[in-house]
Design a protein that fits this description.
The chain is mainly beta. It is 0% helix and 51% strand. The chain contains no helices and 11 strands.
Length: 116
């Protein structure tokens, strides 16, 4: 079955950086649109970034210029490089995989906390 396993979250000071990883298995990774969403306490889950099967990225306005999404199809892994982190980036970050109109697959999430 499809599994998405996130890693790389943690506590970081404002202005710091983190790199999240999402290891995928049980799927033809290269054919999926991959993405990162996040959910802060008391807020709805929101899109952070997506990357097409061909590698074209798109970002939420709130993270443009600070976050970079990338994929390594040979390693079946998705990444999110997060720089210049702000307290408002604090959330649980979820990896997801989409194929056409099928329901997306989700990882279990990884906590990112930005605080001094």
């Amino acid at each position: 079955q499809v599994q998405l396993v996130e890693s790389g979250g943690g506590l970081v000071q404002p202005g710091g950086s983190l790199r999240l990883s999402c290891a995928a298995s049980g799927m033809l990774f290269s054919g999926y649109v991959m993405g990162w969403d996040r959910q802060a306490p008391g807020k709805q889950r929101e899109l952070v970034a997506v990357i097409s099967s061909s590698g074209t990225p798109n970002y939420a306005d709130s993270v443009k210029g600070r976050f970079t999404i990338a994929r390594d199809n040979a390693k079946n892994t998705l990444y999110l490089q997060m720089n210049s982190l702000k307290p408002e980036d604090t959330a649980v970050y979820y990896c997801n995989a989409r194929l056409g109109f099928m329901s997306p697959y989700w990882g279990q999430g990884t906590q990112v906390t930005v605080s001094s």
